[in-house]
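Colleagues,

For the teaching module next term, I've prepared a clean inverse folding example: a structure given as tokens, and then the sequence designed for it. I'd like students to try predicting residues themselves before seeing the answer, so please don't circulate the second half yet.
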């Protein structure tokens, strides 16, 4: 469930090698982007249809701190993705040669041979817009376009030559049912001064949107067992102060609450990362 990052040169370069090996991304870009954009469209439609009474399956990831009890049963949606279709990081020297701003979108679409009115083009625009927006009040954000830039960001936040680890959500045993009732069997609170959530964005190569918000937040490692099979070691976070959140945030509908009235917790999907400093 966790991957410790230290100064060990062998571990660092093994990880670099495994993540930046890249096939001809221009040749396979359309298939990759269709998978990524499909996920994005599902999330977008979930937010857009917030007036509906029926809860979309993928929104069963929110909960409140009082739910974190051994033996608690709750419906949870844990997505599964085929890693063979997941875009890989480019080497830093390659990613830095490519512009990463909305103004350069026509140039980028031409470079990747993507039609300008296609779903893939819309997904790229979404990512470029999100990564170039000014951060919200109290937010620190960064879009990593290479593994090296992700490490550089962690060192800038946690301190030069700092040690840190990645927390992820991991399927320990396989299950073909993404949404089912899970029973909490273990809860481990992670006490750290700060941490960053990193979410994959739809793009021809790997881009992670990393951010943190000032305010009280509690991080957890949780083990759950599904009624239809499957054990998941999950990373989760509880945001204790939601007073400045958008009132239309989907979490408030799911939890039947409003900004500032209740903390909001959520599980991280398996393809997300949480960067946590270590001693």
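(Answer key — instructors only)
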């Amino acid at each position: 469930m966790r991957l410790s990052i230290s100064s060990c040169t062998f571990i660092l370069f093994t990880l670099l090698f495994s993540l930046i090996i890249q096939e001809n991304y221009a040749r396979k870009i359309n298939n990759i982007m269709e998978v990524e954009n499909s996920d994005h469209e599902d999330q977008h439609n979930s937010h857009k249809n917030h007036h509906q009474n029926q809860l979309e399956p993928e929104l069963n990831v929110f909960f409140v701190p009082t739910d974190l009890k051994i033996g608690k049963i709750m419906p949870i949606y844990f997505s599964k993705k085929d890693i063979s279709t997941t875009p890989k990081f480019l080497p830093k020297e390659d990613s830095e040669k490519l512009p990463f701003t909305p103004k350069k979108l026509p140039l980028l679409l031409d470079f990747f041979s993507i039609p300008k009115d296609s779903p893939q083009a819309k997904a790229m625009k979404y990512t470029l817009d999100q990564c170039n927006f000014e951060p919200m009040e109290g937010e620190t954000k960064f879009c990593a376009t290479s593994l090296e830039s992700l490490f550089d960001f962690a060192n800038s936040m946690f301190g030069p030559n700092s040690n840190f680890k990645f927390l992820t959500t991991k399927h320990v045993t396989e299950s073909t049912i993404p949404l089912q009732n899970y029973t909490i069997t273990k809860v481990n609170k992670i006490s750290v001064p700060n941490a960053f959530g990193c979410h994959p964005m739809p793009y021809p190569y790997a881009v992670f949107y990393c951010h943190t918000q000032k305010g009280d937040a509690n991080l957890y490692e949780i083990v759950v067992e599904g009624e239809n099979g499957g054990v998941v070691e999950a990373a989760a976070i509880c945001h204790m102060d939601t007073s400045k959140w958008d009132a239309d945030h989907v979490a408030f509908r799911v939890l039947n609450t409003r900004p500032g009235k209740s903390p909001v917790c959520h599980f991280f999907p398996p393809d997300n990362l949480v960067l946590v400093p270590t001693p």
